[in-house]
Amino acid sequence: MIINIGYFAILAAMALVVYAALSATLGVRYNHNNLVQSARNSLLAVFILTAIAYLALCYAFSANDFSVRFVALHSSIDLPFFYKLTAVWGGMEGSLLLWQLILSFFTAVVVVRYKNNNRDILPHAMVVLALIMAFLLFLLIGWSNPFIRAYPVPLDGQGLNPLLQNPGMVYHPPSLYLGYVGFSIPFAFAIASLLRGKLDNEWILTTRRWTLFSWFFLTVGMLLGAQWAYIELGWGGYWAWDPVENASLMPWLTGTAFLHSVIVQEKRNGLRIWNMVLIITTFLLSILGTFITRSGVLGSVHAFSKSNIGPAFLIFIVVVSLISFGLLINRQENLSTKPQTSGLFCKENSFLLNNIIFLVMAFTVLYGTIFPLLAEALANKKLSIQAPFFNSIMTPLGIVMILLMGVTHFLGWKKTSSRLLIRNTLIPFFIALITMSLVSYKLGSTWQMFLLGGSTLFAGSIILIEFVQSVRINRSQEAKKTGRKSSLFKTLIKDRRRKGGLIIHLGIVLFAIGVCGNFFNQETSFTFSAGEQQVVDKYILTFKEIKQFQRQNSRNEGIEIDIKKNGNPSGTILPVKSYYPTSSQPMTEVAIHRSLFEDLYVSLSSINRDNSATVVVHINPMVSFLWVSMIFFLIGILYSLSYKPAQFRNIKTKNRKG
């Protein structure tokens, strides 16, 4: 009964989004406010219906209802309840339903939040969002229906992939979806602006927080995914340029470019065409990422022709591209702005170069991901583009990007004196040069390491100098107004947009430091027996005993290892092999001894017949800086979200009066 309710809720939601698109279109065309209001109410109802469908699917998993094929394929009786709920988005059908749930919720927020604002373009944005939801619901009703019944009903399900039985399943996919789906809102307002012909900065200001929100969750989603891979896969790394990883990186690159580029439109009314191109591209890459990961094309390109959902996604991407860029070409004269006089060294040129670099990086990732698939599909040749290809291109571009990130803080709008720029960058330059020279002398380094580390220290020094100067200026201004210096807390909450950007950039610096640690990774493997010791760099590992235990639905066998670091006891770790009833192959559960500056990373290869154990040991310097960077991203985003541009406040006042 509940499953039927879920399915009929999707059918009703489909009818309502089609109605909402039609009524909003007619309401705008004939200036009929009641039709627009009816479309708003319909979109609110779509969210409620989607939530009902999602809860129905959650109930099916929790109740072990294997009469539902999706449940039978992704759950089992012995699966812990915690993972039964996360298994809802563990397959294509459930992940699409989660996508629809998030998008319908965001749409509901938009129609409520902007009910009295943006009256010119909001109905058009509602049409765009309704059509996107219509596509998702079309897939859910037809090719990817999560409520299809299984006949005969199995006594037990096939179970969830052991790789997905990890706490990362709770936060990684939802974070990515919040980022992917969040970019649908600025995309919808951008297209609405093109449809309406109202090509001022209102859509940029209205969607500023949506852009920040989406960028943050996409960033954190990728970092959480990297951490999940680091813990779960047992190979000692966190990023392998896998197509699934690349699928999230591509919209992140163009979304980051868009986040910076809109500042020029807001401040100088420039890069307006660029911003349209970037947000359209970001949305399309989000959909392309879903196509790559969910269509089955990764398993075999030839399977694509047999896939039902693959062609639908491909057609959707083509249609959206033609409509979006067709509108942009049609309106390009209205978007063009008169060239403004500016010097070579200015923020405008810096942001333009920033856009170019990010687009080149996105194209590199797209090429490296798609080309092997096209080669197999068109020429029946199996090709594999590995990490060296990506690293050889992305590393130099990353170095330039980080240098640009630092220098931009010392650039002004319109023009900056080259003499002043050189003077301001001298101290950061020498800090970076001296530090990297000492590192190279002590540890040795490649040219990539020297340049990446140097650019990171250079940018980090500039950002810290800028942050300190910002605090000093704020305190000085307060002293002039009140006659006394304000507290440090009051100073820190002023000029939040600038400080938020600086804190986020500090997070990027920490992330880059973590990446630099890859140049000093150590790996070794050995076999030892109970009571034996092995020395790995500054660590002494002592094999204590073999342990066997049951944990939830897995049988585990591992070895207990005592650790001494620099001769001092540092604790015990337990790398294990986990055996799941639904998998013929054991899973490797690594053990990590963490410190601020390096991880001792141990994975168990095998326990041998003579009760000896073979292990692989990695020493990964600076990897914790990657995870710490998320804290800076969070603080910086909170700062930035709390800031409201004066232009946006003026627009809201004007709309309310209107």
The class by helix and strand makeup works out as alpha+beta
Beta-strand share of residues: 5-15%
Portion of residues within helices: 55-70%
| Number of DSSP helical runs | 21
Low-confidence stretches: 299-306
**CA gyration radius, whole angstroms:** 27 Å
Write a structural description.
The protein has 658 residues and is of the alpha+beta class. It folds into three domains: 1-162, no CATH class; 166-406, no CATH class; 520-625, Sandwich (Tick-borne Encephalitis virus Glycoprotein, domain 1). Helices cover 64% and strands 11% of the residues. The protein is built from 21 helices and ten strands. Strands 2, 3, 4, 5, 6 and 7 form a six-stranded antiparallel sheet that branches. It has a four-stranded antiparallel sheet with strand order 1-10-9-8, with no helix packed on it. Strand 6 and strand 7 form a beta hairpin. Helix 11 (243-268) packs antiparallel against helix 12, helix 11 runs antiparallel to helix 14 (347-379) and helix 14 (347-379) runs antiparallel to helix 15 (387-408). The longest helix has 36 residues, at 447-482. The two termini are 49 Å apart.
